[in-house]
Amino acid sequence: MRSGNVVKKLGLSGQDFEEIKAAVREAESRTSGEIALAVASESSSYAFWELIASILTAGVMFLCLLPASSQIYEWMSGLFWGVKPWYLLVFYAVACGIVVFALYFLYNIPALDSLVIPSAAKNKAVTDRAFRYFSESGVYCTENHSGILIFVSYLERQVRIIADKGISVKISQDLWNLVADELTDCIAGGRVKDGFLGAVKKCGELLADNFPAQNENPDELSDGLVILEDEKWV
């Protein structure tokens, strides 16, 4: 899924992006903490699982065709001269190869993709991608290690909120998970902008209670919602 399609799927306008950005600035004005937001179209290509699903489906097709071997052989005898028994093996190999090839691309359709990927694989991919962006965006290196990342992975329909070590000693991850769950519910219900605004507000309140604003309160991270570019998976 391309990053441009994610924006359309989310249904966010330019004005919505500005409102979310303003909400982050408002939240950060009352705390020394920093809030970063990002959306990825997907957290992995899942090519391995798509290939496995394609091979397994082709294997099922092969097993279903085995009882019809004699009929297939007779059909081939009507098409070719001097049909040999090994022609049947070639037929099965070519048929299964075509099925694997076709299904591999078919399983790249998001609606089918989500059906063949194990939940554990999706959970791990989203967590890994969130932590990678946490590092890439510099959330981990704010002056007081008081940054948090709100990360949304659209294909997997999952949200992660990652807090730096300075925050984790005071605020339980369970509280961040509750905010993440509420944002997930809002996105699922089509209330994307409201979901982000609510998540930013609640995160800002948690940060303000534990990390109130100081006399010097530099803005160390981008305030806007970042749409991550599509990656060329290897």
From TrEMBL:
Keyword Membrane set for record: yes
Q: Which Pfam family, any one, appears in the UniProt record?
A: TPM_phosphatase
Q: Which residues cross the membrane?
A: 46-66, 86-107
Q: Tell me the ranges covered by the TPM domain, including all copies.
A: 117-204
Gene3D superfamilies to which the protein is assigned, alphabetical: 3.10.310.50
- What keywords would UniProt list here? Membrane, Transmembrane, Transmembrane helix
What is the designated name of this protein?
TPM domain-containing protein
Species, as recorded = Treponema peruense
